[in-house]
Amino acid sequence: MAKKSSSFGEAFQELEEITAWFERGDVDLDEGLKKFERGLELAGVCKGKLAEVENKVIELKKKFAVLPQEDEVI
Amino acid sequence: MQILSVKDFLTLVNETLRLIPSEAFSVEGEVSDFKISQGKWVTFDLKDEKEDAKMPCFGTVYKITIPITQGMRVRVRGRASVFERFGKFSLNVEEVIPVGEGALQKAYLALKKKLEAEGIFDVSRKRQLPQFPERIGLITSKEAAAYGDFIRVLGNRMGGLSIIHADCHVQGQYAVSEILGAFQSLAALPTEQRPQVIVLTRGGGSLEDLHAFNDERVVRAIFSSAIPVVVGVGHERDESLSDFSADVRASTPSNAAEMLTPSRVELKKFVEMAEDRMNYRLDEMLRSMNHSVESTLRVIDHAFSKTSHGVNDTTMRFTNAFDRFRLSVVATREHIERREKGIVGEFGGVLERSKARIDALSRLVQSVDPKRVLDRGYAIVRSAKGLVRDSTMLAPGDGFSVQFAQGMIEAEVTVKKRQERLL
């Protein structure tokens, strides 16, 4: 589950950053190629996550404070 | 007389107090010194407005189900007892009900004012929801329509999420304690299981129905939650104090789902657009790079070809010149040869012709050689006047010479005779 949590949100954010970089128009071809590759990789991860259909519902077993005894007062 | 220990005596007192039937009496008075301790226990003093008398009251989560504020008139039913440890007399509250018309509403407004003054509703403290939560805590009743609505709308928008559901009563005597417990349990989960946002939701209802969501303890639990909280109650116009203290207020349970995640469709569009943009921009970059490489190359090529042109030129000119030279050499040679031949030819020709002429001339000359003529018997007559060709040139008595092929005589004309022309 730890792996999963570093997937969509972070991937999407990084993809946004890379897209913004491209929009800025820095013409460094070397870096551009690297970022492009990484961008496509991230887009793939995002699209994979977006393709997931189901949500999972987990029932929480809760433990509440026991009824306070009378002498257990403030 | 009996000697008792303190404990024993207090036990006696409590037993005596227990003789008062709690259903029989309801104590009416004014709430004062209202406190909540440890988020769960409520204490207040019930004051007699007319007389100088007050009674401490103590209530647990389960019993106090209405918002209680300072100065509020209530009727309390409960069991009087003395807490032995502290030797304190108080009423263990079984039930509290508001007194007077619109008492509940008044209490609600009073509580709202108090919490507002404390800054519980301050916008500045509200936190931003995580953009893409993957674990969502849900506090609501499984039986409530709100539950189904929320799950369904969320499922439509996004997949791959985990919803950690804390099943709670949303009204009634257990509601407040269960909701408080839910907040605690969710916060206590280990990091990888802990939700990144909590949704507290229920359907609409009356002021009484919404008591749990107006409970000061729930409001404070929302306020102090380390995890951002979204509250969605019923319909747009339903409001509760929990709504105001939430980090984000949703108008309905479905709306809560909408606020949590962007729709999958929108996201997919963005990702695809991002891919397109990157492609396009990279292409642009490559083209512009190409362009500048090409124009650099062209500059170099131009410069080079100018030079090479020059070289070419020179080479060509040289080659041409040399060719011409060679040709001219050849031509000259040929010319010379021709001329040689020509000369020879010509000369030869000339010679021949000359020879021929000379021969002809010589023959001619020979043919007209006077000597030859003389040999044929002719004679050359000359007088003092010169060559005599005509008899008229002589008169009788003139002297003349006659040249023969051999020898010559001198004579005198004796008689002239007329003669026809010979030929």
Write the layout of secondary structure elements.
The complex is a heterodimer of chains A (74) and B (423).
Chain A: H1 2-5, H2 8-24, H3 29-51, E1 56-59
Chain B: H1 6-17, E1 27-37, E2 41-47, E3 54-59, E4 73-83, E5 88-98, H2 103-118, E6 135-140, H3 145-157, E7 162-167, H4 175-188, E8 197-202, H5 216-223, E9 229-233, H6 241-245, E10 248-250, H7 253-260, H8 264-367, H9 370-375, E11 380-383, E12 386-387, E13 399-403, E14 408-412
Helix pairs in contact in B: 3-7, 4-5
Can you characterise this structure?
The complex is a heterodimer of chains A (74) and B (423). Chain A is mainly alpha-helical. Chain A has a single domain (1-74), classed as Orthogonal Bundle (Helix Hairpins), CATH 1.10.287. Chain A contains 3 helices and 1 strand; from the N terminus they run αααβ. Chain A has helices spanning 2-5, 8-24, 29-51, and one strand at 56-59. Mean pLDDT of chain A is 74; it is low at 1-5 and 65-74. Chain B has 423 residues and is α/β, with parallel strands linked by helices. Chain B has 5 domains: 6-118, OB fold (Dihydrolipoamide Acetyltransferase, E2P) (Beta Barrel), CATH 2.40.50; 132-261, 3-Layer(aba) Sandwich (Rossmann fold), CATH 3.40.50.10550; 269-305; 321-368; 373-412, no CATH class. Chain B is 44% helix and 21% strand. Chain B has 9 helices and 14 strands. Chain B has helices at 6-17, 103-118, 145-157, 175-188, 216-223, 241-245, 253-260, 264-367, 370-375, and strands spanning 27-37, 41-47, 54-59, 73-83, 88-98, 135-140, 162-167, 197-202, 229-233, 248-250, 380-383, 386-387, 399-403, 408-412. In chain B, the strands form 3 sheets. A 5-stranded mixed β-barrel of chain B has the order 1-2-3-5-4. In chain B, strand 9 (229-233), helix 6 and strand 10 (248-250) form a beta-alpha-beta unit. In chain B, helix 3 packs parallel to helix 7 (253-260). The N and C termini of chain B lie far apart (228 Å).
